Structure formats: structure tokens, C-alpha cells
Amino acid sequence: MHITRVELGERSYPIHLGNDIIHTFPALYRSMDLPSRAAVVTDSNVAASHLKKFSAVLTKEGIESVRIIIPPGERQKSLTRANRLYADLLNRGFTRKDALIAFGGGVVGDLAGFVAATFRRGIPFVQVPTTLLAQAESAVGGKTGVNLASLKNAVGAFYQPKFVFSDVRFLATLPRREIICGLGEVVKYGYLDETMFAFLERHLDDVLQKHLDVIQEVVLRCNAMKAKMISEDERETDPEGGRMVLNLGHTIGQALEVLSNYRLHHGEAVLIALKWELAIARQAGILAEDDFNKLLGLVSRVPFEPDLHSISASALIQQILGNNKAVRFVLPRSIGKIESSISIDKTSVLSAMKKMLGGR
Ligand SMILES: NC(=O)c1ccc[n+]([C@@H]2O[C@H](COP(=O)([O-])OP(=O)(O)OC[C@H]3O[C@@H](n4cnc5c(N)ncnc54)[C@H](O)[C@@H]3O)[C@@H](O)[C@H]2O)c1
Ligand SMILES: [Zn+2]
């Protein structure tokens, strides 16, 4: 088992990562003096495959768990669903002396984290991520929130978990589509660091084939990189970069998610956007051809053929820019060197989009 620490003074916490480690959860939970009763928020897919075992482990060790199961999917990241969760917690008499465990992918993590941050001004919460995307990226770092109709993550809070507990064994039941989604964020980490890039060039196919030992190594490397960034820039206020570089692939990605009515999953939208943002960096002359080809080569090995027929360049530009005349992108200058806040004017973005969308 590996332990990575996120250093944030009194809000510091560990990430426990391993393969088939679920039985070690209660001892860790207890060692942190957490409440003896916790609500386990999960979605119906995760519940079907893993909740029985997880609840049994908790009960056996005297942690009382109250199960709250929501439907799966991005649409659950809403104020409506958050409201229902507040009501559930109130009905069961939850106070600040109880805890909340987010047991699922990034949707459950972001939503339950937001509810934990705001219910009675904040109750302790723990992240138990069950997707590659959530283990490698979303469960770490304390960004929680829900979407409004036209804007992703429009309402939220920075709220750190007491600990993160990642068992790659959960991924055994993860559909291939969700492994591909996870690779959207993982490839991004490859772009942020040369060593990670080389590792992924060697092992991308092992991840696709769900070799859990390789996946564990990938998650470990992503967590180490993210823990350092969070420790240095918890609230994304560093204008020189900090955790903002993690928004690579997200300026266009989040717009694509919204415009597709969430038909595209988050990780899929990031995969598309990474390619397009590379093209924008190349077109703007900040990325040399050689590096462009290498970066594009890696993301292109992820097997994903998006259906974008319902999306037009003009709608995309409107979603990204609103009334602004330029977009501030996070873009790569070379492998491992990412720059945040590069301003690209509307005309250049539009022409790049049109190229990508075959003239639409
Ligand atoms: N907070 C952050 O820093 C951060 C970072 C990146 C992404 N996000 C957010 O994360 C969300 C995407 O997360 P996601 O990709 O995990 O999506 P998700 O939570 O929707 O999970 C994907 C699908 O996999 C299913 N699933 C989960 N675990 C499973 C398992 N072990 N076996 C079988 N099925 C399983 C889920 O039911 C769902 O259908 C987006 O809302 C995105 O905005 C947040
Ligand atoms: Zn993301």
C-alpha cells in the first residue's frame, strides 16, 4: 500500500492507495477520530457492484453506515439533488457529529463533497473513489460542487476530505468507456511532466487492458503530482501556474460537455479538447512541430471516436467566450512545460474550431 500526503497545515490528509485494501479502511477511519456514524453516498452502479461488501466492512468494525443511493450520471451534480441529500441527512438526524463518505466516481465525489461542505456549515467527509478518473484526479484537491444548467461546477466550495482511500480493485468492474474517460485526465498528467509522459508512452496499452498493477502506478504518480500542486496552491490563486495547469484540456472540454447535453462524459470531452488545444498552441506558434506530434501521438492512442455532429463552431465559441474578445487558455509550450493564461483572440479560436469540426 502507498501513502501520499497532501500537506496543507491543519487540513493535511493522506491518500491511501492499494489493490484489495478495503479491509484496512475502518482502522484508518478510526485512527482519525472520525464520527462513529457516516452516510455513505453512492450511485446505483457502484452500489450494485460494491456497496454490500463496503457496508459489511464498516459494520464489522462498528462504523454505523446510512446508505444513500442516487442515480448515476452528470445530471445528478445539481442543486436539486443536493437539496434532496440535505433532506435525507436531516430526516436521519444527521448533525456535525456525523460524517459523510463519498463512494463513487467524480460525480458522487463532487456532489457529496459539496453537500458535506455546506450541510450544517460543514461535516467531516472522506473520499472513496471508484473510477480511474476519480482516483487519479477528482478525489484529491478539495474542489467540490454542482452544475447549473449552462455552466459546469458553477456552485461549489473548496473543502478538503479527511482522507482519500483508493482501492484499484474497484476498477475491476469499471466499463471500458470509463477507463477511456480516466485516460483523458491521465494523459493530461503526461503533458505536465516528461517522466510521466515517457511512462505513459510505455504503459498506455496496459491501462487500456486494465492491468491493475500498472493502473495503481499511474494513480500513484498522478496523486504525487497533484498533492504537490495542491500544497502550493490550494485555491488556484497562483497566477504563474500552480494548480491552474490542471485546467489543460478543460476550457474547450467543459464547453463540449455542456453543448453535448452531457452525452459526452467529462473524460471524453477532455480527450477531444486536449487534441484541439494542442492544435491551437501549434497554430499560435507556441508549440514546436516535433513536440506537437509527440503530444498528439499519445492522446491519439486512446481509442475514442467522438460523434460531434450536433456541435457547431459558433455555438462552441459562444459557450467559451460569451461576450469576450479573447480566451485565456492553459497551453503546452513543450512536453512538461505548461503555461496558464495565454490569451488567444476570438478569430484564431474560431478558425481552429472550424478546422476541427470540418467547417461547421
Ligand atoms: N473535483 C475535481 O477536482 C474534479 C476533477 C476532474 C473531474 N471532476 C468531475 O468528475 C466528474 C466525472 O467523474 P467520473 O468520470 O468518475 O464520472 P462518474 O462519477 O459519472 O462515473 C462514471 C460512471 O462509472 C460508474 N462507476 C463508478 N465506479 C464504478 C465501478 N467501480 N464499477 C462500475 N461502474 C462504476 C458510475 O456509475 C458512472 O456511470 C465530472 O463531473 C467532472 O466535472 C472533478
Ligand atoms: Zn477534469
Question: How would you portray this structure in words?
Answer:
With 360 residues, this protein is of the alpha/beta class. It contains 13 helices and eleven strands. Strands 4-3-5-6 form a four-stranded parallel sheet, with helices on both faces. The chain has a three-stranded mixed sheet with strand order 1-2-9, with helices on one face. The protein has a two-stranded antiparallel ribbon with strand order 7-8. A hairpin with a 2-residue loop joins strand 7 and strand 8. Helix 7 runs antiparallel to helix 8. The mean pLDDT is 96. Zinc ion binds next to helix 10.
Concise summary:
The chain is 47% helix and 20% strand. The chain is built from 13 helices and eleven strands.
Helical stretch count? 13
Mean pLDDT rating:
96
- Uncertain stretches: none
Outline type = globular
Q: Would you spell out the secondary-structure blueprint of this structure?
A:
Elements: E1 2-6, E2 13-18, H1 25-31, E3 37-43, H2 44-60, E4 64-70, H3 79-91, E5 99-104, H4 106-118, E6 125-129, H5 132-138, E7 143-148, E8 151-158, E9 164-167, H6 176-192, H7 194-208, H8 212-232, H9 251-259, H10 266-283, H11 289-300, H12 313-321, E10 326-334, E11 337-345, H13 346-356
The structure holds nicotinamide-adenine-dinucleotide and zinc ion.
The site of nicotinamide-adenine-dinucleotide (NAD) has 31 residues, from helix 2, helix 4, helix 5, helix 6 and helix 10.
Key words describing this protein structure:
single chain; 360 residues; 13 helices; binds nicotinamide-adenine-dinucleotide; binds zinc ion
